[in-house]
Amino acid sequence: MRALLVEDDAEIAADIAQALMGAGFLVEKAADGEAAWFAGDTEDFDVAILDLGLPKLDGLSVLKRWRASGRSFPVLVLSARSAWTEKVDGIEAGADDYLGKPFELGELTARVRALVRRAGGYAAPVLTVGRLTLDTRRMSVAVDGAAHRVSPLEYRMLDYLAHQPGRVVSAGELAEHLHGAETAVDANAIEALIARVRRKIGADIIETRRGFGYALSET
Ligand code: CA
Q: Measured in angstroms, how far is the CA atom of residue 51 from the centroid of ligand 1?
């Protein structure tokens, strides 16, 4: 999962990024409102964490612009003040959740995971697609109830596919969500990753749709 972290305080940003990376997210940072607006408007993220007090363009305006141009990824708003009016403004501008500073990093990662989960249509933290089960809290994988050991990258690939129910995902899209838009990862590397995971958890769990991409088997 690819997260856009918008926070101008470098220390707080570093702490949040570390916590999110530990929870299996690929984190890309923006330190001002203009950079944030541009990144969210032109690239594909699974979730954004958006501070409201930002240089150049405030967070609320960033959020309004994203929503006005049809960007629908879930957004968790952060604010130094816990004033209820700010919370209402954020929600009305299109925020999906709100966290007042200071906060516990564990609460932030739990909320971010929940937003991503709900955007993928899941109510509970354990995801089931066909014979595959992913526990998003423990980042663990099971097939037919039997646990399988996978690397963090392999887990993130399965997690991303599980969050796109009924949709075929291209190798390019997988590369962007696992490695970022700036990192050049070719289709062969994605193919090799898929092959590795198939050897570990069973060949038929991930289906290949020729010319289109990959999807988890729903049976
Ligand atoms: Ca700030």
A: 6
Whether 99 and 38 share a structural domain? yes
Residues 98 and 169 in one domain: no
7 vs 37: CA distance, rounded Å: 12
Nearest to 52 by CA among 27, 104, 89, 84: 89
Please tell me the predicted confidence (pLDDT) of residue 81.
63
> pTM for this structure?
0.91
CB-CB contact of 30 with 55 (8 Å) = no
Q: Among 119, 152, 167, give the residue marking a domain's end.
A: 119
Task: List pLDDT tens digits, range 111-164.
Answer: 999 999 999 999 999 999 999 999 999 999 999 999 999 999 999 999 999 999
Give the residue numbers spanning the domain of 17.
2-119
**100 plus 132 within the same structural domain:** no
Ligand 1: distance of its center to the CA of 59 in Å?
9
What is the CA(187)–ligand 1 centre distance, in A? 38
Cα angle 57, 34, 32; round to 5: 75
pLDDT along the chain (219 residues), means of 10: 97 97 95 98 96 94 96 92 76 91 94 95 93 95 97 96 93 93 84 97 95 93
Q: What is the CATH number of the domain that holds 32?
A: 3.40.50.2300
CA–centroid distance, 86 to ligand 1, in Å, is 14
